[in-house]
Amino acid sequence: MEDIEFHLRGEFITLDALLKATGLVGSGGAAKQLITAGEVRVDGQVDTRRGAKIRAGQRVQAAGQRIRLLAPELPPAT
User: Fold this and answer.
1) Contact 59, 42 (CB under 8 A)
2) What is the pTM for the complete model shown?
3) Which residue in 28, 12, 17 sits closest to 69, CA to CA?
4) In sequence order, what DSSP letters do the residues of 35-61 get, joined into one string?
5) To which H or E segment does residue 70 belong?
6) pLDDT score, position 21
7) pLDDT in tens, 21-65
8) Most buried residue among 1, 7, 19, 55 by CB atoms closer than 10 A?
9) How many angstroms separate the CA atoms of 24 and 62, rounded?
10) C-alpha 55: how far from its chain's center?
11) Which CA distances in Å does 22 have to 19, 45, 47?
């Protein structure tokens, strides 16, 4: 299983928004179902909080995929 790398745009992203942003689910409702069913792990632990704040360095597993959260990309130096 290969990691999906996801660059944050800010300090964090909520768990449900992350699942939608990576395309693992097609809607907020699908994200809610997956999360509340206990099918999502954050850093190896089941997390059933839709609004959990996920930050750089954390790993999320869902729908047979792993997501690795990366710090926001900095603009190139000029």
Assistant:
1) yes
2) 0.89
3) 12
4) HHTT--EETTEE---TTPEEETT-EEE
5) strand 65-70
6) 96
7) 999 999 999 999 999 999 999 999 999 999 999 999 999 999 999
8) 19
9) 8
10) 9
11) 5, 20, 18
**35: closest CA among 6, 61, 56, 9?**
61
1 band by pLDDT with thresholds 50, 70 and 90:
low
Instruction: Provide the token pair at 16.
Output: 């449900």
Q: Find tokens 């047979």 and name the residue.
A: 64
> Which DSSP helix (H) or strand (E) runs through 4?
strand 3-7
Element (H, E) at 34: helix 28-36
Q: Is 76's pLDDT higher than 90?
A: no
Domains along the sequence of the chain with CATH: 3-70 (3.10.290.10)
